[in-house]
Specification:
heterodimer; A: alpha/beta; Rossmann fold; 3 domains; three-stranded antiparallel beta sheet; globular; B: mainly alpha
Chain lengths: 290, 263
């Protein structure tokens, strides 16, 4: 079986509001999949259904061969969940928390190895209360992976990180992916999805709007490129389907480098905003239970 | 690992956290000992005639209050906090069996209540010369009431935690507990509380734990000061047993892993 997660016609409503409205999605084993979407698009609801925390109104959901809503504790042995917030650990040390959590799994990873993997080896015996925000998040990831899961859920993992901490965190996630862990990531940061994900799914108003690799999402690889440069003291810019030929033509007019030459395609962010704009109505921006 | 082994591990983690929380240690673990010491000193002048001393008079009430502090109060506060800060959700996301979580709580309460009890008894007998129960019958009654009280307090505390959020649970727990301690004869002699208030107190378990502890520690002739003029050990066990069973049912039927409104 090469499908880790299979969703067919998932529907979840809160009162009148259809938070998830007929979602179909397959996530393959071993891939890093990023789920993008504005607040209220149904991301969190979908992920919580997959994690077995939330009931659904209709549709089929299969996670590692099991329906999460009726999954036995044994199923939790094979998944790891990194929650958005996790408090209540202040009085313990990372080593104590990881050691105790590891005991619940049948084949846990070595605690020291996990501490090293998440970069907390030096803080292993300090109280959690004294850790920085980034270090706490690393501990959350450590708790998610200590059971050596086949499938890891990461819910907005780098919110509040400084750029350096984010880079380090991405390296950690990539190393997990290299080790074969299937990862489902939700994020608000498009650069994060671009860096980490093999495939990106954009959801809006509870439906899947687009599904592709970050580079090809929304057909952005085939979109016209914009070539800009400085000539005769002013900024020139053309839209073209053949940027290579145009750059060669422009380059011929200059003795050396073309001044301030930029060739760009729509960024993932441009494409994303274009995709979701029709769906960001007053209704979808309404607060749904987080 | 088995449910029991994980439960034992949870108990050691719970104890570790409890011992590192200075407020908990001071206000629930050491509180009855501090109060017993304080009352023994402050009220010593009022007990000069008879053989009864202030510490002897207050010891049963302090033991009863200690039982409810370490079981009911600790559980209500800690479970409400754990539900709000996501600890329960995190546990639910792992293969930790729910039974192991509760075993951990029971272990925490059992160890802290027993330690607190031993400390109270040592302070009372060594520092204040309070006579300890002389017969095995009294010790057996003592053990039964203590066990029923701790168990009932634990399950009722877990059930009570669902009533509020961590922001207000302190007031929601500590206020009613304080009133209950006053009307149940913990801080004031039982016989000096108005009868209608004693009827109210008799609806709750604390009065019965305190009465049971008086039966264990007081001389027999003091039974005449009770409402029924007797110690009523059978009735005490029956009431405490009913609260324990009711508490267990409430605990199991109302327990929530997630904050209200989130799932």
């Amino acid at each position: 079986m090469d499908t880790a997660i299979r969703i067919r016609g998932l529907v979840k409503t809160y009162g009148e509001h259809r938070a998830v409205d007929g979602l179909d999605l397959d996530i393959h084993r071993g891939e890093v999949f990023a789920l993008l979407g504005p607040n209220g698009a149904g991301k969190t609801t979908t992920v919580e259904v997959l994690e077995g925390f939330r009931d659904r109104d209709s549709g089929e959901v299969d996670v590692l061969g099991t329906d999460p809503h009726r999954a036995p504790l044994r199923w939790r042995d094979r998944i790891g969940i990194v929650l958005q917030t996790s408090g209540g650990l202040d009085l313990l040390t990372p080593r104590e928390v990881l050691r105790s959590t590891a005991k619940a799994y049948r084949r846990p990873r070595d605690v020291d190895e996990v501490l090293t993997a998440v970069g907390l080896a030096e803080k292993a015996d300090d109280r959690v209360v004294g850790l920085s925000g980034g270090q706490r998040r690393r501990l959350d990831v450590g708790l998610g992976i200590v059971g050596d899961p086949e499938l890891l859920f990461l819910d907005e993992p780098t919110t509040g990180f400084d750029p350096q901490a984010r880079r380090e965190f991405w390296d950690l996630i990539r190393s997990l992916a290299t080790g074969g862990t299937t990862i489902l990531l939700t994020t608000h940061y498009l650069d994060e999805a671009e860096h980490l994900a093999d495939r990106v799914g954009v959801i809006g108003a509870g439906r899947l709007l687009a599904l592709d690799s970050p580079a090809d999402l929304g057909g952005r690889q085939s979109e016209e490129a914009t070539v800009s440069w400085d000539e005769d003291g002013e900024r020139r810019s053309i839209r073209t389907a053949t940027p290579t030929a145009d750059v060669a033509r422009i380059a011929a007019r200059f003795p050396g480098e073309v001044p301030e030459l930029v060739v760009s395609r729509p960024s993932l962010e441009d494409t994303y905003l274009e995709l979701i704009t029709p769906h960001v109505t007053h209704d979808t921006l309404m607060e749904v239970p987080a | 690992m088995s449910t029991l082994a994980i439960g034992l591990d949870r108990a050691t983690v719970e104890l570790r956290m409890y011992s590192r929380e200075k407020e908990a240690v001071l206000f629930s673990f050491l509180f009855p000992v501090l109060l017993l010491t304080l009352f023994s000193v402050v009220f010593s002048g009022q007990f000069e005639d008879g053989e009864m001393t202030a510490s002897w008079f207050f010891l049963p009430g302090m033991i009863a209050a200690g039982v409810l502090l370490t079981s009911f109060q600790t559980m209500a506060l800690s479970v409400a906090t754990e539900r709000d800060d996501g600890s329960l959700k995190r546990l639910r996301s792992t293969p930790v069996p729910p039974a192991s979580y509760f075993l951990g709580k029971v272990g925490l309460v059992a160890v802290t209540s027993l330690l607190q009890l031993v400390l109270l008894l040592v302070v009372a007998s060594v520092l204040f010369d309070v006579p300890m129960p002389g017969t095995t019958g009294r010790w057996a009654l003592f053990a039964a009431i203590f066990a029923l009280g701790v168990f009932g307090g634990t399950v009722l505390g877990i059930a009570y935690s669902s009533l509020s959020t961590s922001r207000s649970i302190g007031a929601v727990v500590i206020g009613p507990m304080l009133i209950l301690q006053f009307i149940s004869g913990v801080y004031i002699g039982w016989d000096s509380i108005p009868d209608w208030l004693r009827q109210v107190a008799a609806l709750f378990p604390l009065k019965w734990i305190a009465q049971g502890m008086r039966a264990v520690f007081y001389p027999d002739e003091m039974a005449s000061l009770e409402m029924a003029g007797a110690w009523e050990p059978g009735r005490t066990m029956l009431v405490l047993g009913a609260w324990a069973v009711g508490g267990l049912v409430l605990c199991v039927t109302t327990f929530r892993w997630f904050k209200r409104g989130t799932v």
